[in-house]
Every structure is written in structure tokens, then in C-alpha cells.
Design brief:
Length: about 80
């Protein structure tokens, strides 16, 4: 848990714990700094998930390197009913 904050999503405003996940995908005993992964959780459950992968190599059709890009995926709670 790295903090607490109010998260606004289509389902409403929720006071959440911000949980940072760390990964070691190549198993070299060092955290992968290019992966930024957060869950926002409250008593109602998971409200938001944000995953960013930084500096991913982009290649052309024939495999030639074109540059680097960041990819982000977010999932948010759309509706909430008791």
C-alpha cells in the first residue's frame, strides 16, 4: 500500500487504498521499473486498475526498430449496486 486517495469513476467517488504491484518478469532479482501497476481498492472492492508498460520497442513490418512507446491500460468500475 503506497497511499490513500479518492478515486472518481463513473460509478461514483470512492476513498481507496492505492496498492502498487512490483514485477520481476525476467527473474533477475530486480524490480522491472518499466512496469507501473496500481490497484485502487476500498471496502466495496476493486475500483480501478492501471497498468503502464514504458519504453516498449516498436518494430516495422519487416522487423526494423521504429522507436519506443508507452502502453497504458485502465479498468474502472462503471456501476455499483448494493
Amino acid at each position: 500500500v503506497v497511499g490513500q486517495e479518492v478515486i472518481s469513476v463513473p460509478a461514483g467517488d470512492f476513498y481507496c487504498y492505492k496498492i502498487q504491484w512490483r514485477h520481476d518478469t525476467n527473474q533477475d532479482s530486480e524490480w522491472d521499473e518499466h512496469i507501473v501497476f496500481y490497484d485502487y481498492v476500498c471496502s466495496q472492492g476493486l475500483i480501478k486498475r492501471s497498468v503502464t508498460i514504458k519504453d516498449s520497442q516498436i518494430n516495422g513490418e519487416t522487423g526494423e526498430p521504429l522507436g519506443l512507446a508507452d502502453f497504458n491500460r485502465e479498468s474502472v468500475l462503471m456501476r455499483f449496486r448494493l
